[in-house]
Amino acid sequence: MQRSHIRNFSIIAHIDHGKSTLADRLLEYTGALTQREMADQVLDQMDLERERGITIKLQAVRLRYQAKDGQEYTLNLIDTPGHVDFTYEVSRSLAACEGALLVVDAAQGIEAQTLANVYLALENDLEIIPVINKIDLPSADVEKVKRELEDVIGIPGDEAVLVSAKAGMGIEDVLEAVVQQIPPPTVEEDEPLRALIFDSHYDSYRGAVAYIRVMEGRIKDRMKIKMMANDKVFEVSEIGTFQPQMTKASALAAGEVGYLVAGVKNVKDTQVGDTITSADRPAEAPLPGYRRANPMVYCGLYPVDSGEYEDLRDALDKLNLNDAALKYEPETSEALGFGFRCGFLGLLHMEIIQERLEREYKLSLITTAPNVVYQVNMHTGETLSIDNPARMPKNQDIAFIEEPYVSARVIVPSEYVGAVMELCQEKRGNFMNMEYLDTSRVLLTYELPLSEIVFDFFDLLKSRTRGYASFDYELLGYRQSKLVKVDVLINGETVDALSFIAHEDRAYQRGRELTGKLREIIPKQMFEVPIQAAIGNKIIARESIRAMRKNVLDKCYGGDISRKRKLLEKQKAGKKRMKQVGNVEIPQEAFMAVLGIE
Ligand SMILES: Nc1nc2c(ncn2[C@@H]2O[C@H](COP(=O)(O)OP(=O)(O)OP(=O)(O)O)[C@@H](O)[C@H]2O)c(=O)[nH]1
């Protein structure tokens, strides 16, 4: 294949601006799929993705396009996930491209994720083609979006391609722009092989299938290859391209995009961002930009029924085959028994895994409130990474604690600036900058602790701005903060799974709110149950749940806990999840209650 006739590109957009719809149109127009073959949106394959209306896994597809210049071009469209949890994956798929279509909704204009994506594209030196989509909408304001493109991003607005992906308008213009404006890949075929892995998935027959972009050299069937991140050697058993079905080929040369199968048993050996080289003639250095999947958010997962511990382990093992970013380690909680401490890229990633464990593996789980990873610097000079609040060392042994901070961008109509600033203030934010995008919209930049935004910030932001704010963030690094561990005691016993970390100034208030909430959540027992919050030995809040009246008790259960437990286990399916902690029954919501407090 002539390298000058290849174009490798991605579509980047803010959520809901029409990326998937445009991708479908491109597939349809180039005949990669007929309309009938096309299940709604082909590039989003997972059920969960479809239900949530977001793109989680990225993919690639090869399109053939007969351009107006009479030549046939091969276009490799590489899809990118549309969520901040997967920013690293986005950056790696952009690294596999020479250009990107920047889709902006004609009625909405530039939003926070538009900017985040543009920065990623620029970091990867991509040619950016602006596409203004949804021009069919009565509320479309093309001129305004053009001005925003110029003022905010510095792209000439008049270069934008005007499109209605829904109505199929402007699709040919998009394809022509791809062919004319995006440069072909440079040809470095004589160099030693360097291929970038930009995604992978696990296939029960073939093992890990890596999605690759060959940057230099050639990769051939039967070749011995080496993964540069861990030096493991494999033999290629199949390579090919996505048309969009996987189609075998004998070789892939520099500039080409395709897949590779090499008897790799686990996607951990086909890490996104890693470089594949030849085992016999290895490249000197890997491609830049690789990093290990780095979990940002941790939580505990425990089976409601302790008999399901092994099932939970098996399910995690299986999910892990296809998800190198998922981390899990066995952990024991005094309150919850045997379970796992699991690490995720972000909250969405966490919710996806939890949902899959429950839906696909039929597990009934108790989930503890998520938390970030703290760097705890001890008086001894040692630094500990703490991913579980219950494991926080004693205050007197700690010199100082650091927590992750992010830089957050919020775009919002100007009338909501006050509300957003107030929210960021409440969340310990430092104001950095405020910029008018046009007369009515403002870009606010704040630095915030990740722990404050990762959980309910987005929901609060949406509700306080009536859904008008858009938001994105990137990690800045660790900063020192005055943090303390707050323990919760129920009936005099510390429930380790309820411990949380809070800023010194807020610990008292949070302790009070949490105990108040727990009082409402935990059902009455046969005896009075005190609920306390404590910092070290100091009690900072106290509530109590009054005992049930005797006659009610008699009817409910005879007081034999083991019998009741058996009954509970039987009724578990479809029933409210409870965990027996000491002699108090605690429902699942209690373990998440800390999230709902300000
Ligand atoms: N009126 C109109 N609606 C459109 C157009 N393109 C897409 N939409 C609608 O906008 C919504 C979002 O489109 P998607 O293609 O799913 O958006 P997306 O950017 O892929 O969203 P994520 O996959 O979640 O990132 C859908 O309801 C589409 O039907 C268009 O040109 N005109």
From TrEMBL:
Cellular component terms (Gene Ontology): plasma membrane
UniProt-annotated binding residues for GTP: 16-21, 133-136
Single biological process term from Gene Ontology: positive regulation of translation
Molecular function, one GO term: GTPase activity
Locations listed in the record: Cell membrane
Keywords: Cell membrane, GTP-binding, Hydrolase, Membrane, Nucleotide-binding, Protein biosynthesis
Domain Tr-type G, residue spans: 4-186
Catalytic activity: GTP + H2O = GDP + phosphate + H(+)
Key word Nucleotide-binding present: yes
NCBIfam families in the record: lepA, small_GTP
Stated name of the protein: Elongation factor 4
Organism of provenance: Dethiobacter alkaliphilus AHT 1
Gene name, Swiss-Prot/TrEMBL: lepA
